[in-house]
Amino acid sequence: MLRTHTCGELRLDHVNQEVTLAGWVQRVRNKGGLIWVDLRDRYGMTQLIFEEDSSEKALLEKAAELGREFVVQTTGKVIERSAKNDKIPTGSIEIKVTTLEVLNAAKVPPFKIEDETDGGEELRMKYRYLDLRRNVIREKLQLRHKMMQETRKYMDAQDFIEVETPVLIKSTPEGARDFVVPSRTNAGEFYALPQSPQTFKQLLMVSGFDRYFQIVKCFRDEDLRADRQPEFTQIDCEMSFVTQEDILNTFEGLTKHLFSQVKGVELEEVKRMTYADAMKYYGNDKPDLRFDMKFVELNELAQGKGFSIFDGAELVVGICAKGAAEYTRKQLDALTEWVKRPQIGAKGMIYAKYNADGTIKSSVDKFYSADDLQDWADAFGASQGDLMLILSGDADKVRKQLSELRLKMGEELGLRDRTIFKPLWVMDFPLLEWDEETSRFHAMHHPFTSPKKEDMALLDTDPGAVRANAYDLVINGVEIGGGSIRIHDRATQQLMFKHLGFTEEEAQKQFGFLMEAFEYGAPPHGGIAFGFDRLCAIFGGSDSIRDYIAFPKNNSGRDVMIDSPSSIADEQLKELSIQLAIKK
Ligand code: ASP
């Protein structure tokens, strides 16, 4: 080793020892005859001292020439510092240097390699290897590492076998576009990158693997957002001979294990809610349960009193923000403007304040008596000091709008505390989802999800009402994982494809291999996949998954550091039998 210790290791106990350290120069403070250098590595920072009286002149000159991020090796004696720094673990000692060797000089970095940096996102991504030197980023990747290790520990202890599945495959329909890879040796044909290993893990169940998991890269060609990347990581799992209950318990176990081992948090019981209730009470299939503010429907109380906007609405629904009656006119106007923005799309917002003196003041006093408003307050369970906010319109739309308003109020009132974790299983998702654009049903989860037996009869009469054996794990309003009990017989799988608008030939061409496998003794099975990057971000208390990925892509799916995607040489295109339809 080029060092005897790391830069985070030395303490008063080491005083008088001769040590050799290697690392990066964080900072040089030159006071003429006295130079201090902060030397940094992954483990911490150690102060080096060069003094004119004791150090050789040449050594002092060498130290004076050091620049930020130079890589050096140094030997010296550990001494006690006269002015101690209790902010860093090595703050009681420093190294009185006897030799200094520059292992590699460095250009001035394009941004400060410090917790608070002056580098913008794009610049930091271009020089991501420098960004990764910053403690705050490195700690996030260390968290990720710990999460991976603990996941493997738990899964192994539960008898799961980690099996790798191929990356060059054929499309796995998870609702997004595939990334495709041209095949040189099979001209005109393409592989697809897996959106998930879904069909492979099911095949492993047919093979008798019984309990499979994999920490695996998945690829989806979707529009990007803060919590999406074109390539992302899943903890992918599948089990045989299980009921839904077994799966929920096993993965509630994994979630609790991770929280306790990685964060030291003993998670409470994971609550359960049906999809129907989630939509009815939170307008959202991933409700944030860190705060209450449940939806209250007011059709009966608010309609028929001459207020035409409510009278003409399919749904009148509101939330009660506890203790927010103090909101000023200006704040309420700002909220109204906020819900009217095109991203939210509400036509307007009605409020009713339950004042401290017991009176209720609303923006529609003209239409409602004090008794009417008291009835509203009772329906909301509102008391003095509370603020009721009400939206109305088309039921589906208004639920979405109110869901956004609920989250905003939660934010404004400080109810979305990042140190509190409220996990929830959302269950009984619809099997199918109507897609306006293509005018047909899509699988809400994926086509391999089994319908609830008792709803099978509805498949022909009211397909939208069929519920699936499907579940999502939600934490603090973020979908962390999802899965289902699968179909495991050919006939049902075929029926499912039929309802999804596949002809028999299409189904056979795309998924014949799976349906055939089902004819060779497929056990009942089911599984789940966790979005690993999101899970890390939740653990780290952050909204963006990018910080938890060593080399992420930007908002347009580009890696600005290696400059990808990029064009390829004509020669390469020719080899792949590809002709571009655009001019380069
Ligand atoms: N393959 C599914 C997904 O990626 C998860 C599952 O059903 O196990 O969402």
TrEMBL record:
InterPro entries registered for this protein in UniProt: Aa-tRNA-synt_II, aa-tRNA-synth_II, aa-tRNA-synth_II/BPL/LPL, Asp-tRNA-ligase_1, Asp-tRNA-ligase_1_N, Asp/Asn-tRNA-synth_IIb, AspRS_core, GAD-like_sf
Gene Ontology BP annotations: aspartyl-tRNA aminoacylation
Binding site for L-aspartate: E174, R220, H445, R486
Enzyme Commission code: 6.1.1.12
Gene of this entry: aspS
Family matches, as Gene3D superfamilies: Bira Bifunctional Protein, Domain 2, GAD-like domain, Nucleic acid-binding proteins
Major location category of this protein: cytoplasm
SUPFAM superfamilies assigned: Class II aaRS and biotin synthetases, GAD domain-like, Nucleic acid-binding proteins
CDD domains for the chain: AspRS_core (cd00777), EcAspRS_like_N (cd04317)
Species assigned in the record: Algoriphagus ratkowskyi
Residues where ATP binds: R220, D221, E222, Q229, E479, G531, F532, D533, R534
First-level EC class: ligase
Protein name: Aspartate--tRNA ligase
Keyword Aminoacyl-tRNA synthetase in annotation: yes
Reactions performed catalytically: tRNA(Asp) + L-aspartate + ATP = L-aspartyl-tRNA(Asp) + AMP + diphosphate
Stated role: Catalyzes the attachment of L-aspartate to tRNA(Asp) in a two-step reaction: L-aspartate is first activated by ATP to form Asp-AMP and then transferred to the acceptor end of tRNA(Asp).
Family to which this protein belongs: Belongs to the class-II aminoacyl-tRNA synthetase family. Type 1 subfamily.
Region (Aspartate): 198-201
